[in-house]
Amino acid sequence: MLVSNPLREFYPDGVFPEACGSRVLLDHVMSKWGVLVLLALSEGEPLRWSELRRRAQGVSEKMLAQTLRTLAADGLVERHAHPVVPPHVEYSLTPAGEELAGHLVPLMKWVAIHSGDM
Questions:
Q1: Which of 33, 56, 74, 109 has CB 3.0 to 4.6 Å from 67, enough for a Cys bridge?
Q2: Predicted TM-score (pTM) of this structure
Q3: Quick check: 35 and 103 in contact, CB under 8 A?
Q4: Average pLDDT for residues 6-30, to the nearest whole number?
């Protein structure tokens, strides 16, 4: 698949290489649960596990934990554990995550508008 002109800076030969590291990040970011978690956190307030699970309806505990771990390892989500009993953990976007969410929100708006057309 050939790339579009604005991407030629990163892919000068016009090809998305199979072994490119960008594919791994793209897979994490564009996974069903990755997108929904990033969008849920895009409103700016830190969210607890239960609120993230409520907003991404249908996600299993295992998938939410895996998604949060992956997005945190990618530097897009921060995990804040407060030293209290019972444990109080909140998640928020990093500056890179906020930048990414700024691109995902218009995409999700487009999807919401056009999903009835399909």
A1: 33
A2: 0.87
A3: no
A4: 83
